[in-house]
Structure formats: structure tokens, C-alpha cells
Amino acid sequence: MPRFTTGDIACLKDFNWKGRTDEERSVLTALNPGHDMGRASAHPCIVLKTDRRYALVTTVSAHGSGPYDQWRSPWTRGGHYKKRPDRYRSFEGTARFNPERPYLRLSKGAWPKPRGSWVNVENVLLVPVWFLGVFYKAQGYDENPYIPHMARESLDDLLWQIIEDNWQWSRLLRRFEELRGVKPFPPPSPATPVSPPPRAPAKSSPPPQAPTKVSPPPPGASTKVTPPPPAPSWADVAKGKKR
């Protein structure tokens, strides 16, 4: 299985493949509540973020268009397609809704449907990397196998719109980080030198205290140094106060 990186074009494997286990389907469904993974699967996808175990991806689809309908754009089909038509981003050669937004481009490779390649920025999925396969239908793959890749500026532009317009993005990104085992504030490694906090005064050198007022010795008293008497008890202190 190839190791995909951010910006690569992969292909979601078939969710309904007869060899797919119920456990695998349950994992995919649990990671993407509210999505029909059967319909999303078997589509090319852009890898937005990935590590060794999971990936955040967005699919590329023709949304049922083709030569038979002159590659009709999805927002002209009515129904749920016409809601927020600006959420659809178009690759170069495909009809676009907002001419102010630049076309998306590949830095390497070409789509098999250059007139029908749209990205819905609200359709982002969190999948295990084992659910990603090679996009064999890319133009020229049969003669020279390769992995298509997004142009850097197109990937950045697409990510910015996903961050702005996909209300699920923050939750998906947080879940991705949790699955990676990343903690918000990891403890420092014991081997990493850190500045120690200020030392507390040693017990053998207590901080100076105000001296206790004592009566001077009477004249003629012996000045011989004697060991200090034991610490007075509370009863002795109380008696001394009564004097």
C-alpha cells in the first residue's frame, strides 16, 4: 500500500466490497456519522491531512454528469444540490459557480473527467489509511503509473475555504488529533533539559526571623556559654506571660 502525503490524489476503496468486514464498515461509519459511506466510496479524493493511521480527505466527483447532459453542473440540478452552490469548487476545465474563485489545479496528473470534476467543501471524511487506494483512472496512469498531486496554491486555497465554510472541520480535526494520541500539553521528556524552579531555602538555613525580646542578664551574672535549654512548652510560655 502506498504511503500518501498531504495533497496527493488517492481513491476511496469500495465500502460495499464483498470482502469488507462488518467491523471495517462499523469503523468507517462511526468515524463519519451522517455520511453515506457507500455513496462516498470508490471516488477519487484529495488528502488534506494524514499520518500513518488516519487521513482527512475530500472527494472529487462528477455528481452524475457526463457527455449525455453536457456535463451539467450540480447546482443546476435542483434539490439539495442548489443549496449553497458556492460550496462547490471546480477544477480547471469544469464549470464553476463563482468566477471570482480560481480554478483548482493539479501539479501532476490529469483527471479522467476534466469537464466534470467538482469538490464539495462540506464533504470532508475521516478515514483509516487502509481505506485509501491508488487512483488508477488518472489520465496516463496505464502507460506510466504515478500519484496525481494538487498544486500547492490550489491546496492552500481549498483548505482555507474548507476551514471557513465547513462547520464540521474543527470537530474532524480535533478527532484526527485524538486518534493520533496527541495531547494538548504533553509533559516534557525527562531527557530534555529544563530550567529548574527557584530553590526553596534549605532547612539548615531558615529565613531570618524577628528576634525574640529577652531581658538582659543581671549584673555580675556568669557569662559562661552553656548549651541552650530545651524549647519551652506551651505551659511554660503561658506561665511566663502571667509573671
From TrEMBL:
Pro residues bias locations: 184-232
Region (Disordered): 184-243
Protein name: Uncharacterized protein
Organism: Pseudoneurospora amorphoporcata
Lineage: Eukaryota, Fungi, Dikarya, Ascomycota, Pezizomycotina
